[in-house]
Amino acid sequence: MDPQTLPSMFDDVERVLVSEQEIHDRIVALAEEMNAIYSDEDLPILVCILKGAFMFLADLTRHLQFRHEVDFMEISSYGAGTTSSGVVRILLDLASSVDGRHVVIVEDIVDTGHTLDYILRNFAARNPASVRVATLLNKPSRREIEVPVDFVGFEIPNAFVMGYGLDYAEQYRNVPYIGVLKPEVYQEGTED
Amino acid sequence: MAVPIPDSVDYVLLDEATIQARVQEMADEISADYEGIHNEDFLLVGVLKGSFMFMADLARRLTVPHRVDFIALSSYADTAESTGAVRLIMDTRADVAGRHVLIVEDILDTGYTLRYLYRLFEAREPATLRTAALLTKPDRREVDVPVHYLGFSIPDVWVVGYGLDFADRFRTLPYIGALKPRVYQK
To answer: A1 — contact with chain B (CB < 8 Å)?
Structure first.
C-alpha cells in the first residue's frame, strides 16, 4: 500500500526501507534455512523477545516444517536506553524450562549487541542443548560487542527504523513494513 | 512450500485464506469504531500465548494508531476449571486508566478467563473496554461475557493452530485444524 494514501500514523515515515513483500519473501527464505537445520526430534523452543519480535515470530513460525514450541520473554531496560552491561529486567520469564533443549532466540533487531549478549549469558545459565539467534534486522555498524547471529533477515544501515514490531515511544509497531522515521519525530528522544 | 498437515489433525476447520479474510474484516470494523482516537489512548492487549498470531495479523491491518501490549495468565494447577481462578503472570506495561482498551483473545471458551480480565481492567477505570476474539465456542460457555468483535463461531471440537495448542504443539500452524480425538482422549 502506498504510504501516501494511508492515514496519519504513516505520516511520520520518511521512507520505506523494507517493504511488506520483501519482508515476507525473506522470512520464507529464513524459514527454509531453519527447516534445513532442525528436525522434529530436535523440538526446538523459539523464544520471542517481547514486545518487538511478536510480528516476526508470528510470520516466521508459520513456515517452519519441523516440530517446535514457542515461548515468550518480555524484557525492559532499566531507565533510558541500553547500557554497556546490557542488563535488562525480565518482566516475563519463560513458561517452560530450556534445560537440555534446543533454543532459538527470536529478536526484532540486533543493534549494539549488549542486550542480546546479556540474554545469551542468561540462557547459558539455563543449560540448553544449543542456542541460536534469529533476528529480522541487523545493524552491524552499531555493534559494540560481538554476538553470534545465526539467521538474519536484513542488514540495514544506521537509520532510525520502525514498524513490523519495532516502535518509537510505543508507536508504529503495527506498521506492516520497516520504515525510516522522519528525524523531526525523534530528535528530542533517544533510540532503544 | 506449504507446511504439511500433521497426522494428529483430523481436518482443517478454517483455512488460511478464510482466517485472513475475516481478520481483515474485523480490522476494518475496529478501525472505523476507533477512528480519531490518539495513539496514546488506544491499547490492544494480547493474551499470551494464544493470541500472538491473531494480534500480529490484526494489528498490522488496523488503520488507526494504537499501542500493543501483552498480558500473560496461568491457571492455578490445584483448582478445578469450573472456578475460573487465574493467576496473572505478567501485567500490561501501559496504565489502562482513561484509555480505550481492546482485549485480543484467540478463543472464548467457558468465559472464565475473559470475565477475569474484565474485572481486572474495569477496576482500573479504562475509558472503554471491549474484546476481539478470533473464535468462540458457544456450546462451552458457562459465564456470560460480552464480545464485541468476533471472528468465527465454532463447534465444540479441540482446535489447534493460529496460536492455539495442544500441550504446546501445533500452535504455529497457519490454519485452524480439528485435532483427532485419539490425540487428546488418553
So the answer is: no
